[in-house]
Amino acid sequence: MCPLQPGREPGMLRQCARPGLPRPGFLLPTAAGIIGPMNRSDLFVALAERHPLLTAADAEAAVKTLLEGMTQALAAGQRIEIRGFGSFAVVTRSPRLARNPRTGEKVAVPGKRVLHFKPGKALREAVDAARERV
């Protein structure tokens, strides 16, 4: 049974979480193979299916807590490193002068803080190995 939609078989997470055709984009591992993009609700379902003692509500709370903690840490300017997965850091871009391509006039672009993700070695190797299989 699908933990989010009782009565549906858990064979394919994509169909369990969101009926219909998978959209192109990120890949979602399921019991039937790898299909479509993964979003937050798909992550809840995957977590609930992998851990039968965890309810869908508990899986949702765990994912939301993790994402909220990461968001708060990054907003405070902290760096997050998850070994084997990668690291998130906030990078400050300084103000600069740019050029409007249509008019050619110079435009002042203010400085800003942007999020930077650097994948870990294990993630890079897993993605590269999956590309070779496809």
UniProtKB/TrEMBL annotation:
GO cellular component: cytosol
Top-level lineage group: Bacteria
Keywords: DNA-binding
InterPro entries: Hist_DNA-bd, Histone-like_DNA-bd_CS, IHF-like_DNA-bd_dom_sf
ATP-binding found in the keyword field: no
One term of GO molecular function: DNA binding
One family name in Pfam for this protein: Bac_DNA_binding
Entry's family note: Belongs to the bacterial histone-like protein family.
Entries under NCBIfam families matching the protein: PRK00199.1
Identification of the protein by name: Integration host factor subunit beta
Species annotation: Tepidimonas charontis
Gene: ihfB
